[in-house]
């Protein structure tokens, strides 16, 4: 039981498997997880064979939809990388690092990607389940869910959620460093800057959304009642107008109601 940690209650349960939900998650090889909504452990070739199997009748369309959704996600990642490359500098790095955080298929990093029914107006969610501790390393377990009632620009949404993934991974790295240097009872990382509030995380996520829209050359991008990107903004005003619009959206949106004074929860309470 020496690997048990307060940061990850499931480490005390030696009967836990597949995030305690083996009906939802399938990962027989310990590699990159697609949720069952995107085919689980089936490869693209297996999905393609099912989509072409005439014996399955109308069910074939389901497998083709999963293949299409997987490819759309990959294309969105590539589009966001292109946007970051066009931006260059710190803004470009902000975008690209948000995509890199997902990792590559076949690499075990705690990230899962799926789709499902989300609240109206919510295009995607990144849900940080917990911070798993094993062999001296914390790994953020993050489930990214894309709405099955899609609209808008998928590259923008994938990059936004990727920033949440990156922030969770950054905090996991801080936890790892802290425990290695100061022991399991240390709270240095918990009190540190990477243990961000929900307000801080959403500001960072929407900033990336705005930057992707800029890098893709979109005329504008709105969330709720606020325009967080407009190609007509002068270069000198972009950062200020972007920040003000994001702040207003987070304050007004019933999904958030977040402000610097009411910032919402951190990854781990202080």
Question: What do you see in this structure?
Answer:
- It is a single chain.
- This protein has 270 residues and is an alpha/beta fold.
- It has a domain at 9-192.
- The protein contains 6 helices and 6 strands; from the N terminus they run βαααβββααββα.
- The strands form 2 sheets. Strands 1-2-4-3 form a 4-stranded mixed sheet, with helices on one face. The protein has a two-stranded antiparallel sheet with strand order 5-6.
- Strand 3 (124-134) and strand 4 (137-147) form a beta hairpin.
- The two termini are 25 Å apart.
- Mean pLDDT is 88; it is low at 14-19 and 23-32.
- Report the uncertain regions: 14-19, 23-32
Order of helices and strands: EHHHEEEHHEEH
Q: Please state the structural category.
A: alpha/beta
Distance between the termini: 25 Å
- Total E-strand runs: 6
Rounded radius of gyration (Å): 20 Å
Integer average pLDDT? 88
Which shape, going by the Cα principal axes?
globular
Helix content: 40-55%
Per DSSP, what share of the residues sits in E-state strands of 2 or more residues? 5-15%
Strand order of the largest sheet: 1-2-4-3
What's the SSE blueprint?
Layout: E1 33-34, H1 44-51, H2 60-87, H3 89-100, E2 111-116, E3 124-134, E4 137-147, H4 154-182, H5 198-215, E5 220-223, E6 226-230, H6 238-252
Parallel strand pairs: 1-2, 2-4
Antiparallel strand pairs: 3-4, 5-6
């Amino acid at each position: 039981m020496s690997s048990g940690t307060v940061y990850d209650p499931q480490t005390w349960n030696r009967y836990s498997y597949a995030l305690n939900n083996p009906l939802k998650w399938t990962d027989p090889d310990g590699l990159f997880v697609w949720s069952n909504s995107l085919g689980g452990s089936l490869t693209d070739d297996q999905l393609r064979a099912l989509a072409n199997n005439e014996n399955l009748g109308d069910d074939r369309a389901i497998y083709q939809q999963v293949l299409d959704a997987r490819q759309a996600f990959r294309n969105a990642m590539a589009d966001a990388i292109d946007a970051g490359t066009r931006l260059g500098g710190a803004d470009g790095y902000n975008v690209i690092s948000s995509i890199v955080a997902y990792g590559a298929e076949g690499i075990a990093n705690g990230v899962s990607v799926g789709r499902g029914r989300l609240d109206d107006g919510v295009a995607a969610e990144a849900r940080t389940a917990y911070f798993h501790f094993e062999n001296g390393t914390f790994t953020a377990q993050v489930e990214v869910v894309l709405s099955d009632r899609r609209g808008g620009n998928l590259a923008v949404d994938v990059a936004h959620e990727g920033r949440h993934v990156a922030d969770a991974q950054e905090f996991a790295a801080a936890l790892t460093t802290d425990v290695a240097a100061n022991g399991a009872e240390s709270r240095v990382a918990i009190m540190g800057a990477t243990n961000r509030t929900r307000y801080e995380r959403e500001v960072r996520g929407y900033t990336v959304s705005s930057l992707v829209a800029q890098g893709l050359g979109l005329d504008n991008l709105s969330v709720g009642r606020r325009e967080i990107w407009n190609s007509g903004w002068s270069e000198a005003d972009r950062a200020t107008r972007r920040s003000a619009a994001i702040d207003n959206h987070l304050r007004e949106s019933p999904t958030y109601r977040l402000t610097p004074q009411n910032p919402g929860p951190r990854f781990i309470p202080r």
